[in-house]
Design a protein that fits this description.
The strands form four sheets. A five-stranded mixed beta sheet has the order 5-6-8-7-12, with helices on one face. Helix 4 packs parallel to helix 5. The chain has a single domain, classed as TIM Barrel (Alpha-Beta Barrel). It has ten helices and twelve strands.
């Protein structure tokens, strides 16, 4: 089960960086999201490949024609929030307002219900289980926000790294976490973003072949060799944000040529009988 997803945000939507964290400054930056998303769409069209696109409401509000083109070319539209803020830095009210705003914009553009969500930075943690209640109440059926390993933005350890049904008192939601691959004593992530750009393709292919479930995630900026440098980044962030971009598109082409992928919507339509383990998240700690 290989799932293909993209997070539609611009090159300056970098988390935890003071020079670009204020949305009031974003219109001052040159946008490159349209041209780079078009390149992705053309590549997918050439291979008859469908995907789920998690779109920022802020992007959709400014470029509604881009969202329409993604949708009209047969891809699924999900929410990636409105303002691209870390979930664990928001109150329940702030998170809900942001979520509902993004859903309303995307549904107005496509005329279709938004069923899928991914939090910026995979920023769901065990300290904010209420996010699942808000997603369920908003009609979200699939969540792709769980990073079941250690990471800079917290991670949500203790949960499976395969699809599962997450139960809450008010309902349930299908969770599609990032997959991990065991190397020695460590769980390694390889299937998207900077992880994908860093690893050699033969290593990625090796891990793909031995993984029964893979959740990919890519951004338009992962393939953009002409994007500006985000101002004020330290050396570590520069490496994380820009390493491997030059060869990323060729590597991605090999990936979708070598493996079959689904969008979340197509996967659900084709696998109604698929059995998901069930996990109940009750309190703030496991």
């Amino acid at each position: 089960m290989n799932i293909l997803t993209f997070d539609i945000e611009d090159w300056f939507h970098i988390l935890d960086h003071p020079q670009v964290e204020n949305p009031r400054t974003w219109d001052n930056f040159e946008s490159r999201v349209v041209i780079n998303t078009e390149k992705i769409l053309n590549l997918l069209d050439a291979r008859s490949q469908k995907a789920t696109f998690f779109c920022l409401g802020w992007i959709a509000e400014r470029y509604p024609e881009l969202i329409k083109r993604i949708y009209c070319r047969g891809h699924e539209i999900g929410s990636h929030s409105y303002y691209h803020k870390l979930a664990f830095n928001q109150s329940p009210i702030e998170f809900e307002i942001d979520l509902l705003r993004s859903i309303a914009i995307l549904e107005d553009i496509t005329g279709q219900k938004v069923k899928a969500y991914r939090a910026p930075g995979y920023s769901f943690t065990q300290d904010i289980p209420w996010v699942f209640d808000i997603l369920i109440n908003a009609g979200i059926e699939y969540d792709c926000s769980i990073f079941p390993a250690r990471r800079a933005h917290g991670g949500f350890r203790g949960l499976p790294s395969i699809p599962f049904i997450l139960e809450r008192a008010g309902g349930a939601i299908k969770a599609f976490p990032i997959n991990t691959f065991r190397v020695g004593r460590r769980d390694v992530v390889f299937s998207g973003g900077g992880y994908f750009r860093i690893f050699n393709y033969l290593i990625i292919r090796h891990m793909m072949l031995r993984s029964p479930y893979v959740m990919t995630y890519f951004h338009p900026r992962d393939f953009d060799t002409e994007q500006p440098i985000v101002p004020g980044l330290d050396v570590v962030r520069l490496i994380k944000c820009y390493i491997g971009i030059k060869g990323a598109m060729a590597k991605f082409e090999r990936l979708i040529d070598d493996f079959k992928f689904h969008s979340l919507m197509c996967l659900d339509n084709e696998s109604k009988e698929m059995q998901f383990p069930c996990v109940r998240v009750e309190g703030y700690n496991f």
